[in-house]
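Hi U.,

Before I forget, here's the chain from the pilot set. I'm dumping it here mostly so it's searchable later in email.
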Amino acid sequence: MSHSPSTANRQSSISQQIIAVDARYNAYRASNNPQHRTLYLRRRTQLLRDLQHSEKFDLTLRRDYLKTRQNVLHKRYGLDRSHSPSYRNLSSLSSCRHSMDSLTGSNTHIKGHHRTQSSASSGGFLAPPVEVPRDGLVPTASAQASRKMAGDTSLIENYAFHGMHHIFDQHKGAVTAVKFGNNDRTRLAISSIDGSLTVCSLEPLPACVQHTLRGHSKSVTDFDWSMSNDFIISSSTDGTVRLWNTDSGTCMRSISLGAEVYCCRFQPSNNNMFVCGTAKCQLHVFNVSTGKSYKGGGGKTNGPVSCVSFDRNGEVVWAGDAKGFIYCFCFHLATGRMQRTKRTLVSLGNQITSISSRSWMSREARDPSLLVNCMQNGLLLFRINPDDSLVLKRQFAIKHVKETIRSIFCPLMSFRQGACVVSGSEDMCVYFYNVDEVQKPMVNKLQGHSSVVNAVTFNYDESLLASGDSSGTVIVWNRQQ
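Structure:
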């Protein structure tokens, strides 16, 4: 059965929102069987995709199902909805569950948005008191599933590695990014300045390259997985963003922006849209289904946009530029518009190369945080205040003056005492830092690369770490179990 373009957009938007809700709680399912969680999410995606193309896909019924699904999951995991900002945000999806082309033709306001627009002429945003982290999911000392995944060990013990799982060397130029699939232990994607991406499978052994994604004519600068891992978006200095099918390895869509594109991210609450940043100091918001940008979507920066990151709920966009500034934008899910709320100078003239947001650091430190790499020989950790201003919390010394270096928050750090971050470095090492330790923060240092380590990534249960360097080599490390 064929559907009109508008109907197809509505169906795709509803399906993406259902998957986003499931993925949010997926880590809490089947604590003794992590593989079940991955299979569950894949099967859910497949069923929704099949249903979307059938005559039985009823939009009204799907909307009711989305609302019911949210209620059931919140009740199942014992969350107090009256105090959960994320619940209010999730509930608001029922009022804006259409695609960003707008199904109703009106600019629907997101009810319960954790920021309400101020009447001041500056267009600022006021944040209500935050009683729990913005995720709404707060682990306790008895979070057995998470403790089991973390190994119930100290940080030093947990980040001890006992060898290499595999080494990939198929790329002919520097690695620009490495990322594991969402909730996937063994699927890894790599991008390079040689103009290609590769999708790799680490199990069963021997590890192999499943697909090589070719189509960009110049360096691939960044990429991102969709929530279901069915698609990848990639940005390039050839001035395009491409959408790839990860199962077939084919390019589904190419969007030209007329300027070098340095970064891209899917909207976490609705993968039918993405944000990308260009050399012309612009952020753009696009609809995946139509390939068109949203009217009024995007924002301006002082310098070329070098990196971008959403908060977990997709309400806030953080962007860094080549002049050393960090920008905060409020993202309006119902319209695709972005409104700048803050600008922070980190280091004038020193490029921001990586930016990651986290709603809380650990059970003991629940402040929203921002992890930043800047070309000033430092890895920076900021606390995010309720008004979106940034306060420098910690600074870790790494060699970083001219290359694009990326860092990550460790996926399981929030469920144990202490919190850890990982970064590449120009001295050819991978560094692990405990953000709660003042005297001796370095937890571990991995040595094995022969050139600058540009990018790092953990899989979701921290059993494997991948690091890529400027020679095109990616090392997959085995964490000691």
